[in-house]
Amino acid sequence: MFSFHVVGGRDARQVIARSRGDIIEQVRTTYLLHHDGQTLNPNSYFLRFPEKPNSRIIALPAFLGGETGVAGIKWIASFPDNVSRNVPRASAALLLNDYDTGYPFACLEASQISAARTAASAVVGAEALHRGTTAGKIAIVGAGVIARNIVEFFQAAGWEVGLYAVHDTVPDYAAKLVRHIGTHGGKASAEPELRAAVDGADLVVFATTAGEPYVLEESFFAPGQSVLNISLRDIGPDIVASAHNILDDVDHCLTANTSPHLAQQKFGHHDFVDGTLAQLLTGEISLGDGKPRIFSPFGLGVLDLAVGMHVYRSALEDGSAVAIPGFFGETERW
Known about the structure:
The protein is of the alpha/beta class. Helix content is about 35%, strand content about 25%.
């Protein structure tokens, strides 16, 4: 009952690297559990800094029911200016709590976990929107850690992709992701123009650090084109309102000035939202081909718990989880 373990980021990354397929299925299952009411996922809490308006630290408390039965919280910092110093934008820790006693039993470095659940969510959303795992062209907008993870998860899921067209405002970043994709057996090219990257793509993935929309032209996406709005704030409200929209959780996603939230503020309603990813997975809703299809995942804390538990259990099995003896100062009341 009173054991406590720490799992470092390098060990977490090794677990993730060998089990991406399993993580995709865990994320899919967790979406369905959330849809069935077997989770608790309160609103995230944003700690913002007046002198650093583009930076924030977010607390994501959650409870995952079903067979897992674990509570916890992810504490994740997003400091986009880190990128200019070649430091990853996000850093995080995940604390896991026992459901029976409330006692924490593990602390995990969670930037790897957060990236993995984001990438797995992207793959699940892509399969549902695109209705398959074959694409002649996938446009990747933003060539950072999240984009790299998304491509790795696409490859682990067995997607057949003719070409990854990579666009980033910093050409060197795009070139590095292109090389990474090539090293892992994919075909990729850097595209300096955003429009050229997106045109003709079956699937468009936004994984940037954008703080406000810059894709504003209502006809920017083609009818039937699938768009993964992973970074949430690249796409203008007029585009959102004229497209099919799938969210991971409606209440969560219509906050924090995400693209869907901006559309709701501009038009005074959210009738443009077709439903959730879980509803699409279960067949409760379907999407036509006459409009672009956009998936906007706010990022649910229950997904971090699902992936975190997978990493924790794997680390216990392979011996990489570090026990902290005497972590609790008292284990008896008297």
